[in-house]
Amino acid sequence: MITAIVHIDTEAARIPEVAAVVADLPGVSEVYSVTGGVDLVAMVRVREHEELADVIADRISKVRGVVRTQTFIAFRTYSRHDLDQAFALGLDD
């Protein structure tokens, strides 16, 4: 699984609409409205590297209200939450 973190700049008045449309796109697992230098952050998860262009360049970038995107490809995941789930036996503490 390939994970990409996509920073999305939008027209200010269209942030909620853009977020809703992007969240419904195949390959997009989550969309966050954030503070800082970008308006939205989308998590894209695909099986093949080539699928990134389909999701990001061909779909996200063409959503009405998207001004620009910047994509970061994840090499590894470091998440305590994921590790705890991987080693959980299903027993209550």
From TrEMBL:
It holds the Pfam family AsnC_trans_reg. InterPro entries: Dimeric_a/b-barrel, Tscrpt_reg_AsnC/Lrp_C. Residues 6-77 form the Transcription regulator AsnC/Lrp ligand binding domain. GO terms for molecular function: sequence-specific DNA binding. One of its GO terms (biological process) is response to amino acid. It comes from the Bacteria. GO terms for cellular component: cytosol. This is AsnC family protein.
